[in-house]
Amino acid sequence: MQQTMSYILATILVALATFSGINMQNSMQAALAQEPLSSPACGQVVHGNVTLTANLVCTGDGLIVGDDNTTINLNGYSINGPGDNSSKVGVAIPHSNGVVVQGSGSIRDFQAGILITGSEGTEINRVTFEGNKIAVFMTGSIGSTVEQNFIGPNTIGIASHSSIGPQIHANMMTGNDLAGVTLVNTDKGLVDANSIGGSRNGIFLDAQSTKNTILYNNVLKNDVDINNADGLPLNINGNELLKNNCFVSQPSGGCNPQ
């Protein structure tokens, strides 16, 4: 039997979320043992205001956030990893609230470019993501904002797993193979004003993702532009598709070109 997109995405995200929970527990233990760092290097725990002064080329994880209200300014530089089939993360944000990661700058070649787990109020803006398994992965998080980033090519652009209220706004996503945006078991999110093309699914929501609003997106030249749980009627999970410029939706009728 051919596997549905729901099954494929859920399997990938659950596997990564399970791994990340173990990885981030170890990272938090390391965070408690280290002092603030003014010149970050690969694998180091950071907090406060952090500004890159050179490219990082990492064989392991990139940077690990160790406290609330940390700001990482890429400052035009890049964090480069060992490849998307590794288990490594470009910027890990475990159980830390009010964290900001800002560009310009790029994060490349990690399993997850940025991994947000158990955190609230994270902001990611003006970052370029290329060559990652998942560019931005939120799991068990609340109110993350991903805005005005350049995302692609990656396997998945932005993924939200078991999270509440992600705000995905005005990103440019091109050539993310499996999906541009995917929501799995995610509620009350807003996906608006994004440009998404060149994916098997432009925007995908699974059957357990409820009360999400998909609004004013240009979702074009994907195999399926907007996919609500492989064609599940919108009244079942309460998602809204409003004024999106697209051609192919599951169920049909989800595109409203303006």
**Whole-angstrom Rg:** 17 Å
| Major sheet characteristics | 10 strands, parallel
Please indicate the count of domains. Answer: 1
Spatial ordering of strands, largest sheet: 1-4-7-10-13-16-19-22-25-27
Helical content band = 10-25%
Decide which structural class fits the backbone: mainly beta
The helix-strand sequence is HEEEEEEEEEEEEEEEEEEEEEEEEEHEE
Q: Uncertain runs with pLDDT below 50, 5 residues or more? A: 24-37
Distance between the termini: 38 Å
| Overall outline | globular
Binned strand content? 35-45%
Q: Look at the structure and give the mean pLDDT.
A: 89
**Total beta strand runs:** 27
Number of helices: 2
Structure in words:
The chain has 258 residues and is mainly beta. It is built from two helices and 27 strands. The strands form three sheets. Strands 1-4-7-10-13-16-19-22-25-27 form a ten-stranded parallel sheet. Strands 2-5-8-11-14-17-20-23-26 form a nine-stranded parallel sheet, with no helix packed on it. It has an eight-stranded parallel sheet with strand order 3-6-9-12-15-18-21-24, with no helix packed on it.
